[in-house]
C-alpha cells in the first residue's frame, strides 16, 4: 500500500492504465464515514448486489474480484485522511482490510486466478496542484 501527498488522481489513474492496470477511484465525499466509504468502494469496483456492507464482506469482495477482468486493479482512495480525521476507528478498520486484501492478492500468494489488488491512498482531494 502506498500513500502519496496531494497527488493528481488523473495522473495516478493514467499511470495504472499505462501499465495495463484497471484504476478504481474511491471518493467518500466531503463528510466521510465508514458506511459512505464502504459504499464508495463498492461503487468504484461495481460490487455485486449481495455485498454485505461490512469489513468482512469488503475483504471477501476485494480478494475475489471475479466479476472484473483479470489483471491488476488499483484502488485509489482520494483523501483517505478525511475519514481518518472524521472516524479514526472506521479508518483503521478499512485501512486494515485494504492492507490485508492487497497482501492476499500479491503475486506469490496462494492464488488460483490472475487478479491483483494495489492500493494507493491520497492525503489530498486528488485535484491537480496549483
UniProtKB/TrEMBL annotation:
<dbReference type="Pfam" id="PF01337">
    <property type="entry name" value="Barstar"/>
</dbReference>
<comment type="similarity">
    <text>Belongs to the barstar family.</text>
</comment>
<feature type="domain" description="Barstar (barnase inhibitor)">
    <location>
        <begin position="25"/>
        <end position="108"/>
    </location>
</feature>
<dbReference type="InterPro" id="IPR035905">
    <property type="entry name" value="Barstar-like_sf"/>
</dbReference>
<protein>
    <submittedName>
        <fullName>Barstar (Barnase inhibitor)</fullName>
    </submittedName>
</protein>
<dbReference type="InterPro" id="IPR000468">
    <property type="entry name" value="Barstar"/>
</dbReference>
